[in-house]
């Protein structure tokens, strides 16, 4: 008589979680574990591999790795495994992380399991050093240059206006505090003596006598000079013959 032996499949429950601890590791860690009736019966997780992926919002794979599942206990826990995402994901973005357990083909038919669902993961904002190290696009460089130029222009206009305003205030203050220059007063002249008023019934005062006419030297008289039979006349120092009173005898010797 033969006996029939029936072997039932054993259940496993693979799970994972995300841990971020900057003090322990600069990377995000995928922490996996396997539990279930197989682990309880055997005392260790089944042999296999973990495939860990991180996809961005566009569905593109940003990180992917495959790690072998050890069949011995680690860190005091049976079936646990730490898988770091050894890549700096883009900051301030949301990624979808998945961890899928693939058992070995020799035992795959004897296991019943379902892989965990993916989990969202949001990276931290960029630091100041990361922002400075990130290359700037051309349009942002042009925008920053235009902003700096505009700020410098505005600052120059403000400085010029203030300088002009201060210059006007100093000029006004100096004009208001300037010492007035005294104006020269002309010396008083002689007080005019008023003429005596003319009273009714009184005649005009006698006129002052006219000043004597200036004496002129006497005109030399016309004198006759007798030199012989014919008299000669002297006219202003010139001698003339009586027979020709209008002609000066210049050839005659005296």
Task: List the main descriptive attributes of the protein structure presented here.
single chain, alpha+beta, three-stranded antiparallel beta sheet, Immunoglobulin-like, four-stranded antiparallel beta sheet, 4 helices, 22% helix, 12 strands, 254 residues, rod-shaped
Summarize the structure.
Helices cover 22% and strands 26% of the residues. The chain is built from four helices and twelve strands. The strands form four sheets. It has a four-stranded antiparallel beta sheet with strand order 5-4-7-9.
What does this structure look like?
This protein has 254 residues and is an alpha+beta fold. Among the domains are: 116 residues, Immunoglobulin-like (Sandwich), CATH 2.60.40.10; 28 residues, no CATH class. Helix content is 22%, strand content 26%. The protein is built from four helices and twelve strands. Strands 5-4-7-9 form a four-stranded antiparallel β-sheet. Strands 2-3-6 form a three-stranded antiparallel β-sheet. The chain is rod-shaped, with a radius of gyration of 69 Å. The protein starts with 9 loop residues before the first strand and ends in a 13-residue tail after the last strand. About 6% of the residues have low confidence.
CATH topology of the domain at 10-125: Immunoglobulin-like
Strands of the largest sheet, in order across it?
Answer: 5-4-7-9
Shape summary: rod-shaped
What share of residues is helical? 10-25%
Radius of gyration: 69 Å
The CATH superfamily of the domain at 10-125 is known as: Immunoglobulins
């Amino acid at each position: 008589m033969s006996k029939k032996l029936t072997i039932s499949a054993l259940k496993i429950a693979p799970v994972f979680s995300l841990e971020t601890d900057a003090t322990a590791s600069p990377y995000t860690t995928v922490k996996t574990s396997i539990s279930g009736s197989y682990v309880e019966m055997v005392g260790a997780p089944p042999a296999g591999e973990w495939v860990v992926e991180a996809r961005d919002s566009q569905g593109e794979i940003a990180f992917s790795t495959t790690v072998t599942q050890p069949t011995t206990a680690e860190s005091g826990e049976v079936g646990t495994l730490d898988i770091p995402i050894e890549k700096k994901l883009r900051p301030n973005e949301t990624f979808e992380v998945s961890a899928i357990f693939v058992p070995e083909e020799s035992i795959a038919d004897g296991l019943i399991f379902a892989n965990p669902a993916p989990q969202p993961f949001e990276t931290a904002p960029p630091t100041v050093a990361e922002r400075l190290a990130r290359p700037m696009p051309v349009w942002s460089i042009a925008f920053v240059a235009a902003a700096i130029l505009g700020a410098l222009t505005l600052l120059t206009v403000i400085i010029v206006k203030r300088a002009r305003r201060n210059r006007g205030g100093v000029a006004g203050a100096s004009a208001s505090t300037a010492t007035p220059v005294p104006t020269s007063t002309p010396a008083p002249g002689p007080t005019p003596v008023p003429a005596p008023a003319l009273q009714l019934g009184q005649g005009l005062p006698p006129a002052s006598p006219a000043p004597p006419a200036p004496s002129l030297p006497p005109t030399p008289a016309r004198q006759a000079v007798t030199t012989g039979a014919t008299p000669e006349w002297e006219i202003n120092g010139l001698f003339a013959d009586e027979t020709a009173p209008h002609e000066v005898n210049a050839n005659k010797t005296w």
